[in-house]
Structures are given as structure tokens and as C-alpha cells.
Amino acid sequence: MFKVLRKKVLSDTGNDRVVLLDIEAPLVAKKHQPGHFIMLRIDEKGERIPLTIADTNLETGAVTIIAQEVGITSKQLGRLEAGDYILDFVGPLGQAAHYPEHKHVVCIGGGLGVAPLYPEVKHLHEIDSHVTTIIGARTKEILILEEEMRKHSHQFYVATDDGSYGTKGFVTTVLQQMIDDQQPVDLVIAIGPIPMMKAVANLTRQYNIKTLVSLNSLMVDGTGMCGACRVTVGGETKFTCIDGPEFDGHLVDFDEQMRRLNMYKDKEKSALALEGCGGVGRCH
Amino acid sequence: MSLNNQSKLGGRQPMSLLEDQLRISGFGEVALGYTEEQAIAEAKRCLQCKKPLCQQGCPVNIDIKDFIGLIAEGKFSEACEKIKEKNSLPAVCGRVCPQEEQCEIKCIVGIKGEAVAIGRLERFVADHVMSMEREKVDCAIQAGKKVAVVGSGPAGLACASELAKLCYDVTMYEAFHEPGGVLMYGIPQFRLPKEIVKEEVEFLRQIGVKIECNVIIGKTLTIDDLFAMGFEAVFLGTGAGLPYFLGIEGENLNGVYSANEFLTRVNLMRAYKFPEYRTPVHVGNRVAVVGAGNVAMDAARTAKRLGAEVHIIYRRSEEEMPARKEEIEHAKEEEIQFQTLSNPLRLIGDDKGYVTGIVCEKMELGEPDSSGRRRPQPIPNSEFTIDIDTLVVAVGQGPNPIVTQATPELQVNKWGNIIVDEQTGATSIPGVYAGGDVVTGAATVIKAMGAGKIAAVGIHDYLIAKE
Ligand SMILES: Cc1cc2nc3c(=O)[nH]c(=O)nc-3n(C[C@H](O)[C@H](O)[C@H](O)COP(=O)(O)OP(=O)(O)OC[C@H]3O[C@@H](n4cnc5c(N)ncnc54)[C@H](O)[C@@H]3O)c2cc1C
Ligand SMILES: Cc1cc2nc3c(=O)[nH]c(=O)nc-3n(C[C@H](O)[C@H](O)[C@H](O)COP(=O)(O)OP(=O)(O)OC[C@H]3O[C@@H](n4cnc5c(N)ncnc54)[C@H](O)[C@@H]3O)c2cc1C
Ligand code: SF4
Ligand code: SF4
Ligand code: FES
Prior knowledge:
The complex is a heterodimer. Chain A is an alpha/beta fold. Chain A contains nine helices and 16 strands. In chain A, helix 5 packs parallel to helix 6 (194-207). Chain B is α/β, with parallel strands linked by helices. Chain B folds into three domains: 3-131, Alpha-helical ferredoxin (Fumarate Reductase Iron-sulfur Protein, Chain B, domain 2, Orthogonal Bundle); 146-241 and 399-466, 3-Layer(bba) Sandwich (FAD/NAD(P)-binding domain); 244-393, FAD/NAD(P)-binding domain, CATH 3.50.50.60. The termini of chain B are far apart. One flavin-adenine dinucleotide binds next to strand 4, strand 5, helix 2, helix 3 and helix 9 of chain A.
């Protein structure tokens, strides 16, 4: 059993609740490096789901996870409070990310990709890279981790679809501007919804800027045992959990990845409906 | 209840089977086991040979003659003790061992008629004694030395149990949330009820083995960490968990599963009870399974129970099928259709990315190859398509790379299997032992257990010598 040490609601606009949880898992905390994720199962009947490790605290043994409430498990997670327990929590999983020092790295996070991006921004800042962060959101209220990101970035931009904050437009609008301004970019890291990562990769491909994306494939075990997390990268099949989750954005087959993520959509809806949420998520 | 295997005069006692219709509508165990009378009658068929050949066929060398003798006298507990001297999981092995090619194939009675049903008798005593008080291990002289066992499949379970009986302080680490390895996530409920596996694991706890789930060695803790934590030896029984795919076009379409994923979703995560259990599985009306080993049969029979029409697609003919005969028979009784001499070429999908069909070509058998099996060759212009909603690929698996990647000093062969000394289970790292599927590649429960026991003795000798 793993104890919830702290809980915080990061944003709440009805459907888009984002919650942060600190889970007591000292062994996982100790081994964590940027890029790693965990798998958790809340109770006996639960599904195993992957979540990125957003932060760790070696003194308290806490592992921070940030989850967007999109379906049954993430909503159940959102209902937990400090002092509650979850049944299973395992990690750290995946390949650690290895980044260049003293280079200009543009970190792009969209929607929930902001959470997994945070440890990478922090790490790059620590190894003295020049960090530019671009955060995208539909609207101002659902922006998360802004202060934390700002603190670890040399340049910081926000893009909102509706223009309610920062630049009006997409993260690619800001990136295009930087490229047009002839700012040298050594590496782009993009984490977010598939359409966003695809758009970023399409843009940087034209300028030959190396781009890493982090995939959020469906997973069962997270240890290479099942192949649920398959993705085509450069024409080869890879397992996101053991070969990734970070891959070269110019080589990933995003359309296939998008289709695979939708595999259980109908089933997920029916499960949610049964929970009494009706799929709209106001069941708290 | 039907008595399917009608006994001939002098033939073996038939085992009752669940009726076909009851079977495919649920996950209840298919083979129902012997009654006391049947067990005694079957035991009396044993000739109590002077030189019992059967024993040589058993990978863990059970005193088969003696335990069967005890059953014939009605001494079931004693029979169980006898088996347990060599095999700590008789309820499991009695059910899933390929007896017909191990112990029973050597039985003298089998030369002229049907061999003594050794596996069924083993299962009988195990089930019979299961509910009774189990042996207690008396560790007056607590050796106190700590040994870590990695992986809780048959290899790990056997190694841990031997070491605990030798009074070591054993901790077993398991990556998944439940111990048991393939017994838990792979072999389905209807062939090996999970309660039996749980009972065996509970027994290990009773004899003092600590079991830590949710720990991945190579990730959560490394082998170096284990030594730093005071463990004096480590056993690796991490199995063959990495699924192979066919490498054909369309294999990443939705609805295409490895057998591991399909069976894990259904068995370990209980997707057959979705949405009460939260893990979904996509089945549809028509399922094809590629391959013809035990894993393929299990996947096919599982899909059948989830309501689908099921086809098994296999490149060779029925004769070459690697699955146990009994499993093939059960699959046939459950109306699973066999498309033998058929080789998958590519998959077709719809515009949403779901698989809709599998294109195969017909094969014919040519000359025998190095394995002695006749090599299948394609028949030109023989392509045909089977409409499907789901495909399960069951064409084998390799060793999971997590431990070996994290431990570069550990010597592996070109397939990634850990190299060990066969006599002791020792790997290239002093104090680190290995056994089971991670060494041999996908094999059998009893072989993995045998390897776990050998390594336990190897570890014991190593720790004594070290003193
Ligand atoms: C390596 C990795 C790291 C991740 N890190 C985070 C993280 O830090 N925070 C976070 O909130 N999520 C993260 N995810 C995604 C997270 O695992 C899913 O949101 C979660 O599994 C949804 O479970 P559910 O039961 O709540 O929703 P479900 O009922 O399973 O799904 C609800 C809806 O979400 C969609 N969905 C399901 N799974 C995913 C997925 N993997 N990605 C995107 N959409 C999905 C479905 O299509 C459906 O529409 C990560 C995924 C991976 C593979
Ligand atoms: C579907 C199916 C049906 C089968 N049917 C039969 C049958 O009828 N008869 C028969 O004799 N054999 C059968 N087999 C084969 C048999 O199950 C295996 O040979 C046997 O289980 C191997 O045992 P093992 O202990 O080596 O590995 P496994 O049973 O694979 O156990 C390995 C365990 O180690 C864990 N692990 C892996 N890596 C790590 C790590 N890094 N850290 C911690 N834990 C880790 C895994 O999660 C797993 O629990 C079948 C196999 C399958 C898949
Ligand atoms: S363990 Fe297997 S091989 Fe050995 S006697 Fe029992 S059934 Fe036969
Ligand atoms: S070989 Fe057959 S008959 Fe002889 S002891 Fe073994 S089981 Fe009995
Ligand atoms: S999640 Fe099972 S192999 Fe990646």
C-alpha cells in the first residue's frame, strides 16, 4: 500500500480538473531521473495506468504525479485525499532522458504535457542549458505549473487558443516566431496532445531542428511484457515503455499512435457511464 | 457432467470434464479431477516396477512409484509428503505438466496400453491435502543469511521454497502486483484456478518467505543495491516475457494483441469482468490466433469464452503442433476452428485503424528441416482472407531485457538468455544465480521449477563455501 502524502487541485474548470498527488514511494523517488514514469493501480478492481514522475522529494520519499481527469481511473485518483492509500505503485519506468549541457533547448508543453515537461525543464536548468519554455493551453484558467516553470526557464512564453493570456494562437506560433527571429535552437522537446507534437515536429523538420517527443501510449504492464504500447518509429516497431517514452519526433508515426490511443474509447465511455458520471466528470 | 475419455478394459480412469456448453460460457475449470475411488483404482494400475522408468522422465525426479503406492493404500497425506520432497507445487504440475512427454511417456504400462495417469494422481493428492494442515518448517538453527529471489514464477517459487526450508532469510521481488508469474497472468483460470496459485504463494509466506510485489529489479532496485542491502546471493527467475510479433504489414492495427497482452488483460486484470474490473479488452465476433503452442490454445479458448468464433492459424500441419495433445483436444471440443498449413501475409484494417481481416497463403509440407519437422512451403496463388475483429499473435517470446540491460556484467547469449552453469545455476557474476525461462527460453513449469531448485542448492553450496 502506498500513502497519499499531499493532494492539491491545480486547475478546475469542470471537465478539466488537474490534480497533483504526492505518493510515498521512497525507492522510486531515489531512482528517479527525468523522463521516467510510474504505473499505478488504485484498488483491486482498478486498471494499471502510467503517469510521469513530475517531481520527487528524497527526504520524505514522496513521488509527485500530476493527473488530468480524463477517465475512470484518473477521476478516481482525483477523489483521493492525503492519508488515503493506493494499492500498487511501481517504477521508475522507461528510459531516462539524456540532454546536452550548455545548449539552447526549447521545451514545449501543451495541455497536460506541461506536467511531464516540468522535471525536464528543471533538470535542463540545473545542467546549465539555456531553457526556453513555451506552454500552450486552450484558455488561461487551465494553465498549470506556470510559476514553477517560469522559475526554471530563461525565456518563458504562453500561448492560448482564445488569446485570454500570452500570445493568441498555438505553441507553434511562438516557435515559428523564434525561428523567424533567427534565435539559434539546438533542441526542441515537445510533450502534449498528439496533434500538438505532430505540428511541432512538422515545423522543426523544415529547419532540421532535432525534436524529441514523449508518447503517452496505452500500457498494461509498463515493463516490455505485453506490447500494448507499440509505436512505429522510423518504420520500426518500438515499445514505448522500454524503448521510450521519448522518441525522435521526426520519425514517429503520429497518426497510428492517435488511432491506438482511441482503441477503447467506447468501452471507456460505458465504464464511466456505469460509474454514474455520464462521461461528463462532475461526479465528485 | 460427461465422462469424455471412456475407459477401455484395463485403460486408465477417465477424468470428468465440464460439459462443453458450460465450459465456453464461463471460466470454470474444465478438468474436474479424480474422486477417491477413482484415484485408488488408477493407482492400482501401477505395477510398482523394480526400476521405475517413469521417475527418469520427471524433470524434478519425483518418487512416482512410491507416491502412487501410498495412494493405492489410501494414504493420501503420506503420498503428498512424498511428492513434496521433490516438488513443492504438485497441484500446479498435476494440472499443467506435459506429462505425456515427460513421466507418462516412460511408464511401462504405456507400452501395451494407456500409461498410468501420473499427472492426474499427483493433482488428486495435492487437491486432497490442500485443505489440510501443511508441513511446518522448523528452523531451530536460523542461518539468518539473506537471499533475494527475483521473479515469482515457478522458478522463483521453487527456489524460494527450497531456500526457506534450508532456513535462509528469503525475500522474493516481483514486478507485477501479484505473485505467480505466468501461472497468474498467462495460464487461464479454466485450466489452472488462481486460488491454487494463491494458496501456494500463501504457503511460502507461512514458511517465512517475504514477498515484495511492485519492485522491478533493474529499475526500482539494482542487483548491486541488493548486495548493498545485505543479501548474500541473488536468484534471477525473470522468465521469458518479451512477446515476438510476426513482422507483417498492419500488425500495429487496433485489435491486434500479443498473447501476453490478451491473456494478461483477461487473467490478471480480469477484463472478462469489465466494467466491474476496469481493464477493457477488445474481442468482437471473430478472433484469429496465430500459432499452435499451449499459449495459442489458451488464447483461443479464452477468446471463445468471451463469446467469439475462433480460428487458429498455423503454418504447419496438426501433427507438428507444439501444444499438448490434451489442449488441442479441448480446443476442438470447444469448436475452435483450425486453419492449418496457412501462413499469415498481412493484415487489413478499416479507416479507424481497427483490424478487419487477415490475408494468408496456403502451405504444403516439404523436406524435414533441422528440427526434424517437415518444412512448410507456400503454394503459389493460394491467398485467402479471413474476416476478423481481433488477432492474437502467439508465436513465442524472448527474455525480458530489463535486468540484463541494467547489469551489463551479466553474460547473455545472442538471444538475450542468461548464461549459467547447468549444475549450479551460477551466472557470470559471483553470488548471482538464474534459472527458468530466462535461461532456457520459453519452456515448462516443471523445468523452471527444477532449475529453481538446482540454483537453491547452488546458492547453499556457495554460501557454505564462502564462510
Ligand atoms: C509514459 C506516459 C506518461 C503519462 N503521463 C501522464 C501524466 O503525467 N499525467 C496525465 O494526466 N496523464 C499521463 N499519461 C496519460 C495517462 O496514462 C492517461 O490519461 C490515463 O491512463 C487515463 O486513464 P483513465 O482511466 O482515467 O481514462 P480512460 O478511461 O482510460 O480514458 C479516457 C479518455 O482518455 C483517453 N486516453 C486514455 N489513455 C490515454 C493516454 N495514455 N493518453 C491520452 N489519452 C488517453 C481515452 O482515449 C479516452 O478518451 C501518461 C501516459 C504515458 C504512457
Ligand atoms: C499462456 C501460457 C501457457 C502455458 N502453458 C503451459 C503448460 O500448460 N504447461 C507447462 O508446463 N508450461 C506452460 N507454459 C510455460 C510456463 O508457464 C513457463 O515455462 C514458466 O512459467 C516459466 O517460469 P519462470 O519462473 O521461469 O518465469 P515466469 O513464470 O515468466 O515468471 C517470471 C516472473 O518474473 C517477474 N519479473 C520479470 N522481470 C522482473 C524484474 N526485473 N524484477 C522483478 N520481477 C520480474 C515477472 O513479472 C514474472 O512474474 C505456458 C506459458 C504461457 C505464457
Ligand atoms: S512433476 Fe510433472 S513430470 Fe514430474 S511426475 Fe509430476 S506430472 Fe510428471
Ligand atoms: S513406470 Fe508406470 S507402472 Fe512402473 S512404477 Fe512408474 S508409473 Fe508405475
Ligand atoms: S506496456 Fe506492456 S510492453 Fe509496454
